[in-house]
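Below is a concrete protein record.
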Amino acid sequence: MSTRDTGELALRSAVVATALAMNARGINRGKSGNVSARWVGEGFDGFLVTPTGLPYDETGPDDIVAMTEDGEAPGARLPSSEWRFHRDIYRARPEVNAIVHTHAPFATTLACHSRGIPAFHYMVAIAGGRDIRCAPYATFGTQALSDHVTAALAGRRACLLAHHGMIAVGASLPGALALAVEVETLAEIYLHSLVIGEPPVLSEAEMDVVLARFATYGQPRRADE
């Protein structure tokens, strides 16, 4: 570990902490899902991703896999089987620095019906658009799935994956995790609403207003941040 700089070590540790947190917060269970963060260091341009098949509570910073933008992983551990959509999201979205993929129960329930989340609640806009799309099904770990994911995320920060789960992206690991929690909350409320009947949705015009409000929502950044 001494050969790694403190920035890389801190990011590796943050990837592990995020993977543990998604299970602790109930949006993932067991070894399913995966987490990554963009990493650009001396002579390296790519991302750090959780390894395949290793329980998160047995995963340490050294187990996190460094992958190049070309999809090469020279280390001892094998990367998540879903590394392709991590690579392709980072390629397509320079503003994205972190990705959280979970098998969140409520979101996955909707995804098993190939159903996204419509604008039944204004908070749907937190994912970046008027709705949260569901990407078509493809076998896990394939380029076909990655292609579906990048299309479903166009203009969005989250999507569902048919018969699979959910993805949230962000400028940071805490941001991506927080968004994943929000999407799972929306999925839960939407499913409860469907018990009564298909809920009415907000108009496109109103969702555009909400999206504009979200663009300036929150505390302003300090000059030293």
Summary: The chain has a mean pLDDT of 94. The radius of gyration is 17 Å.
